[in-house]
Amino acid sequence: MSKVLIITGGSKGIGRATAQRFSEAYYRVVNLSRKPIDLAGAQQIPVDMLEQDWLAGCQSALLDAVADAEQVVLVHNAARQDGDTVADLEGDAFRDVLQINLVAPQELNRLLIPHLPEGSAILYVGSTLAEKAVSGCASYIASKHGLVGLMRSTVQDLAGRGIHSACVCPGFTDTEMLRGHINNDPEVIAAITANVSHQRLIDPDEIARCLQFCAENPVISGSVIHANLGQIER
Ligand SMILES: NC(=O)c1ccc[n+]([C@@H]2O[C@H](COP(=O)([O-])OP(=O)(O)OC[C@H]3O[C@@H](n4cnc5c(N)ncnc54)[C@H](OP(=O)(O)O)[C@@H]3O)[C@@H](O)[C@H]2O)c1
Predict the structure, then answer these.
(1) Fewer CB within 10 A of the terminal residue: the chain, N end or C end?
(2) Is residue 191 part of a domain?
(3) Using CA positions, which residue lies closest to atom 20 of ligand 1?
(4) Number of separate domains in the chain
(5) Which GO terms describe its molecular function (predicted)?
(6) Ligand 1 within 6 A of 45 CB?
(7) Whether residue 107 has its Cβ less than 6 Å from ligand 1
(8) pLDDT of 12-43, one tens digit each?
(9) How far is it, in rounded angstroms, from Cα 43 to Cα 62?
């Protein structure tokens, strides 16, 4: 059986771990990101999803990649997290974050959905901040809430097609995005892990395993899956 993983943001972090896990499960991996993915056998499609016409140059490569597939798993993973608040967020900066985190996934959906065979899956990587807010990352939070809406619409609009969808919402995962956001400050990491019931950061492969489970189990379709090791609310 020919299984294909199309993933965005597979060059590092959760995306890289997911690409590796699916590769080990005999999926052909196709990655879209600016930097290349370091994974034997993976096909790299270099894109900057911030650019308005980012999809134009890679449409035919993507359609070729799914042409003979018996199952396609499309994972919308790439994202950008800026520090901003509703008091200072400017329109252009907001549009940029929405373009990468929310519009680009829909542009990929529109291209690929007509070519997805029955048994395929469209998975979204959300965040704990897809269903709640904290101060200081308004654009990211709005984009992640929007992604849950896109997942729910995916389920409704593709009813009868045999394609399932879910949104996996990671908690604090040990990646460049997290460490960059907190300036790799050990005190902040200690404060974060004190609010996690397992008192540690999540390994990216734990999220990858969750995505693989979702890909292989259509019964979860429509779910928002909180993969956060139990965040303690105070
Ligand atoms: N880490 C956490 O604690 C955490 C928590 C909740 C949710 N998440 C979510 O998990 C997902 C992965 O995050 P991560 O922590 O693994 O982040 P990461 O290590 O920063 O990786 C982000 C990925 O997105 C890609 N990307 C960013 N901007 C792009 C652009 N303009 N065009 C194309 N690709 C772009 C990057 O690739 P290039 O730089 O090569 O382009 C990279 O592969 C994201 O959706 C994030 O919101 C993470």
Answers:
(1) C
(2) no
(3) 177
(4) 1
(5) oxidoreductase activity
(6) no
(7) no
(8) 999 999 999 999 999 999 999 999 999 999 99
(9) 10
pLDDT band at 1 (very low <50, low <70, confident <90, very high): low
What are 185-220's pLDDT values in tens digits?
Answer: 999 999 999 999 999 999 999 999 999 999 999 999
Tell me how long the chain is: 234
Tell me, yes or no, whether 198 lies in a domain: no
Residue 184 domain-assigned (yes or no): no
Q: Does a structural domain hold residue 193?
A: no
Q: Which amino acid is at 30?
A: V
CATH of the domain at 35: 3.40.50.720
Domain around 40: 3-172+203-227
Q: What is the pLDDT of residues 148-167, one digit of tens each?
A: 999 999 999 999 999 999 99
Cα(125) to centroid of ligand 1, in Å? 10
Which residue among 173, 179, 188, 201 has the greatest number of ligand 1 atoms within 8 angstroms of its CB, and so is best to mutate?
Answer: 173
18 lines ligand 1 (CB under 6 A): no
